[in-house]
Amino acid sequence: MEAWDVLVIGSGSAACASALRAAKGGLKVLVIEKSEWLGGTSAMSGSGIWIPANHVAAAAGIADSRDEAIAYLRAVTPEGWAEKEDARWVSFVQSAPDMLRFLSDNTPLDLRVVAEPDPYAEAPGGKMVGRMVSPMPLSRRILGRFAPRLRRSTLPHTFTYQEVVDLDLYHHPIRAGLRMWPKLLWRWLTNSGGQGTALMTGLVKGCLDAGVTFWLETRAIRLIQDSDDRIVGAEVERQGQRQTIAAERGVVIATGGFEWDPQMRERHFPGPLDRIGSPRSNEGDGQKLAASVGAELDRMDQANIYPCLPTRYQGKQHGLPMTFQAEPHSIVVNRHAKRFVSENDFNIGEVLDERDANGAPVHLPCFLVGDHRFLKTSIPFRWYSSYDRDWVKTADTVPELAAKLGLPADALVETINRWNEFCKTGHDTDFKRGENGWEAYKAHGDENRLKPIDKAPYVGMTINRSILGTKGGARTNDKGQVLRADGSLIPGLYAAGLAMANPFGTRAVGAGTTIGPNMTWGYIAAEAILRQNR
C-alpha cells in the first residue's frame, strides 16, 4: 500500500491548484491521471481566468472589490439559484483573489489582465475590464521529463489569449502571423506556448517544485472507506496492476466532466449534439466514484456549451470552440426558422440548451443561415469546415436553403426579411444584437453588427449545442466537502472543477468562468484539508 496525505484524482487546473496548496501546506500529495497526458481540459483551453478583485488588476490601477463581485453574481446568475448557491458564491468570491495571488507567488505563471468586459457589465457590480487574466507564454521544457506529456490543444497556443483578441486571429490569421513572426519563431524554438499550455505548464511546474508526485496512466476505480465511512484512499489501476493508495487527510476528485460517456450525456443532455471539445478521458469517472459512496449528484444538466467548428484531435473528430455564429450577413434560427437570441450573446450556449418542463430542448435543432459573404469573413472557418464536408449547405434561394436544412420555407423567408429590415434601421428590435458592452466589444465595431442576408448563394449549417465540459457532479458545501443528499458530509472526500456540482452552471458570468472558479474550488478544498485537526 502506498501512503500519502492527499490523493488528487485528475490533473487539470482544479486538481493542480488543490495539489499545490496542499503541498505548500506541508502535506505529501499524489496526483493521478488516467490518460497519458497531463493537464485535462484546462491544457486545451484558451485560459481565460475570471477572478474578481484580483491583484493583477489592482496593480494596473483597476478598482474592484469582493462586495461588487458578490453583487454582480447575485444580479446575473439564474433565477432561483441564490437560495441554494449563495453560500458557495460568497466562498468563491472570498477565496478567488487569495488563490490567484498564491499561484502567482508559487508558480512561474506571469498573469496579465485581458481587456475584456464582463458579459453583463451593465449589471450591478459589473466591470468593463479587470476580472479576466491569462498567462504569458512558458516553455514546456521547464517540466523536464513531463514536457512531452503535457496535453496539446486544438487552439493556436503559440499565441497568448490577449494576442488572439488584439490581432483578431480568427479573421486575419495571415496578418497576425506576419506581425508576430519573430515572437512565434522564438516560441517554436523554445517549445513555448500561451493560453492553456502556459497555464498548465506553470501549475505543473509549481507542483513539481513543491514536491507533488504525478502518476500518469493511473485510473481510480474505487474509493476506500474506514469503519466511520471516512474516505481514506482509493484503489487504482496502474500498469495493468491494481493497488491501494492510502490518503490519510483526504481525496480530492477533480476528474473533469462526463461528456464522453454516451449514456450519461444522453440522459442529461437529450437532443441534437454537434461536437465535443474536451479530452476523451472525460468519461464521468469522478461523478461515478462520488455516487458510489453516497454522494448527491447535482446540476447534472449544466455544461460549458459554446459553438464549435469541426476539427480533428489525436486522429479523431473533435470540436474547436470559436465565435463564428456572430459574423456579419448571418443569423441563428431555431427549428421553427425563428430567431431566439442575439447571436453575439456570450451565453448563447445557455439559450441553445433551453429546456421545457420535461427536460426536452425547446429550440433544437438550430441553424446558422446567411449569404455567401459570411464565408468570406474568415479563412479559418473555411479551413475547419472542410473537416465536415456535409456540414455547410448552399442554395440559390432562401426556400431552397430551407428545404436542405429541413426548415419551414415561409418562416425562414419571413425571418430573413425581418432581419434585413433591422439592418436598414441599424437596430435589432428583437434581441438588440451588438448593443451592450460585451456584444459591442465582440462585434469589432458598429459596422459589423447588422448586415443583410440578401446576396445569393445562401448558406446554412447546424449550430446545435456543442459541449466543452459538463458542469454537474458531487454536491459540495462552501468548503468543497462532498455532501450526501441529506446534507451530511462524506468525511475525507472533496470535489472541485468540472467534477463538482457547479455553483454557476451553464450561464457564464465571465469569459473565464470555468477555469477561474475551478482553480478556486481546488484551492478551497485544499484549505479545508489543511484546517483539519487530523
TrEMBL record:
Domain of life: Bacteria
Segments forming domain FAD-dependent oxidoreductase 2 FAD-binding: 5-514
Cofactor: FAD
Pfam family, one: FAD_binding_2
Keywords: FAD, Flavoprotein, Oxidoreductase
InterPro entries the UniProt entry points to: FAD-dep_OxRdtase_2_FAD-bd (IPR003953), FAD-oxidoreductase_2 (IPR050315), FAD/NAD-bd_sf (IPR036188), Succ_DH/fumarate_Rdtase_cat_sf (IPR027477)
Keyword Transcription carried by entry: no
PANTHER family to which the protein is assigned, alphabetical: 3-OXOSTEROID 1-DEHYDROGENASE, FUMARATE REDUCTASE
Designated name of the protein: FAD-dependent oxidoreductase
